[in-house]
Amino acid sequence: MSSFAPLQRLVVTVAIIASFVTFLDGTVVNVALPAISDELGGGITTQQWVVDAYLITLSALILLAGSLSDAYGRVFIMRIGLIAFGISSVAVAAALDPLTLIISRAAQGAAGALLVPSSLALITATMRGELQSRAIGIWTAFTTGAMVVGPLMGGLFVDLLSWRFVFLINVLPIAVTLVLLGRLHLPEHPRGTRVDWLSGALCAVGLGAVVFALIEQPLYGWAAPRIWITAVGGAALFTWFLLRQRHPETPMMPLSLFRVRNFGWGNLATLFVYAALALNGFVISVYLQQGAGLSATAAGLASLPVTILMILLSSRVGAWAGRLGPRLFMTVGPLMMAVGAMLLLTVAEDFSYWWQVLPSMIVLGVGLSLTVAPLTSAILGAIDADHSGIASAVNNAISRVAGLIVVAMLSTIVGGALDLGGFHSAAWVTAVLFALGGIVSWIGIRRDPIEATEPAQPAS
To answer: Which residues cross the membrane (predicted)?
Structure first.
């Protein structure tokens, strides 16, 4: 980060560490799911809820958090989020039954919602142009790397200690970030605008109800009143939420943002790409343990090539996208990941990581490196700095909702059991989702000629 001014380096560092804990906790849990199920019970339904309880509150409240960030200041909201995330992480680690664990995970997701939009908005508010693209590339390398290295760290803790320690990993990063925040003095101008709490509740309850129906319907069937009433009611509440965004003076999710071409099409690409990533991460972590018989650590190591490639390539790809535009990268990257997902169809009963999984991980790693930084830069670079908090929140909410829905539909995708046939079914669905992300990017993404010639702005 030698080309950044001292304040900009501090901003990037804070943004990386603050986002790191939420990305890490969103994925580190995957490799711990079999151990959690063995100790607390509940089978695949408990496993789905442990993941989705976190994603429900994270994805629903991240929109509210974006509004809070713009209204009251990014640093202030981030500090509250860090403290709450630390407390809820301890509660998750101490849970003695599935219900307590799921409630604590929901609280953890709510705290995490305060972190991601605030942290990324620090970058978009202090840097523009090519410098912003490079900063986002660095942020992407570490935060997306956290998403992939999480299973490895989780596996080591599960095998050597206990799954409970998996949720205490982030205590040290939180403490470091709180110290760094004390040194970060930015000329923030909180707008003090009204926050639409009702919309936040409609979004959270609506999403939660739909996800409940999707997870529980394999057990009760769609004809059961508890399923179809919940699904219809949740969809109605979420529709009410969307309708409210057309009227308030300060909407949580300004629908006008989607009229900006790169923002609208980029978020559609986000929906497909991150749904595929969530499905792929969940299925690989669980199947390699329960189906292929690997230890938790070995299952975590399976995705290590993706992490290495992300760290090596993402910042460079971010700089290239800043000069050449994001369209080519956002097309080629997801299509490469679709090929990587298809390679998982070679997994057989006679399991071999080196020939059946490693080639897929390498292709996925290159494709992911080509995709994430240009995708993030294209979406947020299309929106002015005054709305950077809410723009970041919308994009992050969409990526989390994508994962939330696809994990909720897991039983349907794999045919009720994550055996070899279910694993192959998930690989097909993952490949299709990745390919749709690439196609959407080619159709919709353009290079903004004004943004392309805009010089990088130094931090004030």
So the answer is: 12-37, 49-69, 76-96, 102-123, 135-157, 163-183, 195-215, 227-243, 264-288, 294-315, 327-347, 353-380, 401-420, 426-445
Secondary structure (3-state) at 356: helix
At 319, list the tokens.
């700089």
Please report whether residue 192 resides in a domain.
no
Distance, in Å, from the CA atom of 341 to the CA atom of 283, rounded to the nearest integer, reads 12
Q: Could you tell me if residue 299 is inside a domain? A: yes
Length of the chain counted residue by residue: 460
Two tokens, residue 257: 């943002």
CA separation (Å) from 11 to 132, 268, 311, 457?
12, 28, 19, 14
The pTM (predicted TM-score) of the whole model is: 0.75
Looking at the fold, whether 208 and 276 belong to one and the same domain comes out as no
Residues 313, 143: Cα–Cα separation, whole Å: 13
32 and 157 belong to one structural domain: yes
Question: In this predicted structure, what is the pLDDT of residue 457?
Answer: 42
For 210-269, what is each residue's pLDDT tens digit? 888 887 887 778 888 888 899 999 999 989 988 887 776 666 677 778 888 888 899 999
Q: Does residue 216 share a domain with residue 313?
A: no
| Residue 153 and residue 98 in one domain | yes
* 173-62-70-190 Cα dihedral, nearest 10 degrees: -60
Domain that holds residue 243: 197-252
Centre a 10 Å sphere on the Cβ of residue 325 and count the other Cβ atoms it contains. 21
- With a CB cutoff of 8 Å and minimum separation 6, the contacts of 399 are 270, 271, 274
d(CA 385, CA 196): 21
